[in-house]
Amino acid sequence: MRLTIKDIAYEANVSVSTVSKCLNGYSDVSEETKKHVIETVRKMDYVPNNFARYISNRPTCTIGLTVPDIKDPYFAQSTFGIETRLKEYGYQLFLGNVNRSEAGILAFIRKAREMRFDGLVITPDSWSDDVKNALRALEIPVISIRRRPPEDCDIPFIDVDHYAGAYSILEYIYSCGHRNIGHITLPNEAGIYRLEAYKSFCKDKHLEERVASSDIPASILPSAVNNGIEAAGKLFSEWPDTTAVFCGSDFICAGVIEYLAMEGKSVPDDVSLAGVGNNDFSSLSAFNLTTIEMNRYEMGLQTADMLMEAISGNRVESRLCSGTLVVRGSVARI
């Protein structure tokens, strides 16, 4: 007959909740009680999943990493960079696909407690009170990659400097002679920084703002294409003399190209186009996109370095990584 947590509670003469707190690392249990419960667990040979490793105070050499959506190729390169560097440090990576769900990330944080990860790299889509409280309860270093936490979280982050990257590509489009430059927004946090850069650029250069958006998600290619088609329709309906379009992502650029093809137009003969991401398809002759390389692999390497610093007990500061302008043939000189 398999032992249960109730059996442990009965033998130790404590409540089931006390046993649970001892097994899950809560700090509101006295050391004496915790020691008594752990000794009872050992005596009765009660071993829940991963508990044999949990009850040891030795490092597990395991790092948890949440991925918002495993179908989103953005995270593949940074994950590879994190894993590559962690192996050099002698650590293994435990990956959790949270499906852009708060419940998913909360479940993974619980898993981090249960399995005694030595550190955690997270990418929450939102910073709700439940997520923040769960992270505060962890007693391990946490780094946020690609998401910038609220100040009250006190969690260091690493992200691309979206503002600087967007501004640099707009500078290039402007240098090619374009003055009627439109912008199609990316509907997420990074897109907000890129939109801010576009607005600042237009103000600095005394240009008219031409902004179009779509409520369609744009994290994976099929939905981003529909986003680009819809937003491009809005942009060119209101500003038909637009000569260049800066999109919040390369994926959205694919939708703009599709829209222009339906209108009998092409890039760059009729409209110049630039994006952000330097995705695998961006260099193909059918796209040949001028874009911003976000150096995601290198950002993954730096993320692992930051976490190792934190695990060593050192104070870690947040970082913004530079993007790299990649000039191809999608922006014509006029």
Describe it.
- With 334 residues, the protein is of the alpha/beta class.
- The chain folds into 3 domains: 5-54, 434 Repressor (Amino-terminal Domain); 62-160 and 297-322, Rossmann fold; 162-294, Rossmann fold, CATH 3.40.50.2300.
- Helix content is 45%, strand content 14%.
- The protein has helices at 5-12, 16-23, 31-44, 51-54, 74-89, 102-114, 129-136, 162-175, 189-205, 221-238, 250-262, 296-311; strands at residues 62-67, 92-97, 119-122, 142-145, 157-160, 181-184, 211-212, 244-247, 272-274, 291-293, 319-321, 324-326.
- The strands form 3 sheets. The chain has a 6-stranded parallel sheet with strand order 2-1-3-4-5-11. Strands 7-6-8-9 form a 4-stranded parallel sheet.
- The termini are far apart.
